Amino acid sequence: MVAPLPLSIFLIARNEADRIGATLAALRDLTDDLIVVDSGSTDGTRELAASFGARVIERDWPGYGPQKRFAEEQCRHVWMLNLDADEVVPPDLAAEIRRLFAAGEPPHPAYAVGIAEVFPGETRPHRLAYTLWPVRLYRRDRGRYSPSPVHDRVELDASATVGRLRSVIHHFSVRSLGDQLDKLNRYSDQQADDLEARGVRIPTWRLFVELPGNFLKAYFGRRHCVRGAYGFLTAMNYAISRHLRVAKHYERRIGGRDRPGARGR
């Protein structure tokens, strides 16, 4: 058995029992400090996470940034890796992270890690899959997650340099088209809340271009077009969710009465 790295790994979760097992299984040998912050799961997520040796902490859902900030505070090590419950570290990425720490302190205080979607019916990302490159591996004294309830990103201090890993996280984000659209619809509520809280006003003309513009962005810009019919359908879901964000913002602005209360994930 290989020694764990001086690295804490943290996840936030709610009702992820069907996916979190694969995520945690891939992390067994990387860390001796695995944290799962759960926000009210009813499907056995907490018990499953504990069976993989995770420290499971229950906390009501305050939004993405505040929940990840809370999870950061539970970590024992200076170096932290953040994953979502539907993301899997493949063997090549685990080996690359090990090599990074092999000579001692990594040269950069933060690293961008690619995240590529794996759609239903696939076992790994398409070779042309669109890949996001957020900072996910970082020193806790050089960066923290943004406190925003909807914007999921690490804010680094001004002098921090960012390296980039070559291997990518496999993101199993789509259970089904219906589940994806339901999740995106809930997220659009949170985005509309955030726009209102920050006093942002999106012009009305955006209502007419948000759906077609974001379909083109997803289908061609994010290369969903290489995924055939399923790529077309997921691009449509993305476009609908972006349209809903603006539509709900507009409805509130003109005094719409459907004003949701507190929402979970």
TrEMBL record:
One of its GO terms (molecular function) is transferase activity. Keywords: Transferase. Residues 8-152 form the Glycosyltransferase 2-like domain. SUPFAM superfamilies: Nucleotide-diphospho-sugar transferases (SSF53448). InterPro entries: Glyco_trans_2-like, Nucleotide-diphossugar_trans. Pfam families: Glycos_transf_2. The keyword DNA-binding does not apply. It comes from the Bacteria. Belongs to the glycosyltransferase 2 family. WaaE/KdtX subfamily. PANTHER family: GLYCOSYLTRANSFERASE (PTHR43630:SF2), POLY-BETA-1,6-N-ACETYL-D-GLUCOSAMINE SYNTHASE (PTHR43630). This is Glycosyl transferase. It comes from Methylobacterium tarhaniae.
